[in-house]
Amino acid sequence: MHIDSVRRSTRWAAALGTLLLTTLSACGTASSGSAPGHHGPAESTASGSAPASDPVHLPGVGRRLYARIPAQSRQVVAVYGKGRDSAESEVVLYVRQGGGWHQEGSWAAHNGRRGWTLDHHEDDKRSPVGVFTLSAAGGTFADPGSKLPYDHNTYAYASPKEWPKAYQHDFGYVIAIDYNRVPGTPPRDGARPLGAAKGGGIWLHLDHGSGTSACVSMPKSAMETLLRTLDPARHPVVVMGDRADLGA
User: Where does the record place the region Disordered (predicted)?
Assistant: First the structure.
C-alpha cells in the first residue's frame, strides 16, 4: 500500500517496498493502531558472520533462484533470512568481478515480522521470497549521492506522527524492491500491476530495531552504502528469502 493512498484510507496503515522478475511501492501495511511491522517487544538484531564469497555462485543461493538473476546483473543485494518465521536477517552486497561474485559488505537487518513467504499477499506481514530488480530510490533525507534515481520528498515518505519516535525516520532512505510495481517509477508510486491483493510497497529502508510489515530494514550506514553503490548500468537486483528457500 502506497503512503499517499494510506493517508486517504486510514491514518494507521503504513507504506514501505515492488515486480518479481519471474513472478511491491512502500512497506506493506500495519494493523490498525500499531506501528509498522511491530507487535510486542522489539526483536534483537540479527547476528552471525556473512557467507563467504564464492567465485562462481552466490553463497547460500540455490539453482532455482540463481537462474532468475539476469545475465547482465553485476550487483546483488542478498538478504539471508534467519528462518521461515523469523524477522531477523542479514544483508550482503555482492559485486561481480572477473567472472565471480565478491562480497563488498554485510549488515544485520530485519524482514517481515512473521518471516517469509513464497506467495505474498497484502497484510500477511511476511516478506516475499524471490529475485527482484532495484530501480529507484527516495526518502525524506536529502540525496546522499545515490546512483539510482532519487525521489527526495519530505511529505510523501513521512511516517505518520502517531507512530512511535523510533519509527519516525523509517523512510529517511528507501530503495524500491520491484515486486508488484512499475520498475523505474519513484518508490511512492502506487501502481499495482498484479492487483492490490498481491500486496506492494516493499522497500529496503532504515531499521527501527524489529520486524517490518514486509520490507527489509537495515542501518543508516548500510542504506547510504547501497545508495552510493547500486548503479542502474550494472542492473542491480535483490535476492531475498529465508535460508532454506534461498538454497533450494
Answer: 30-57
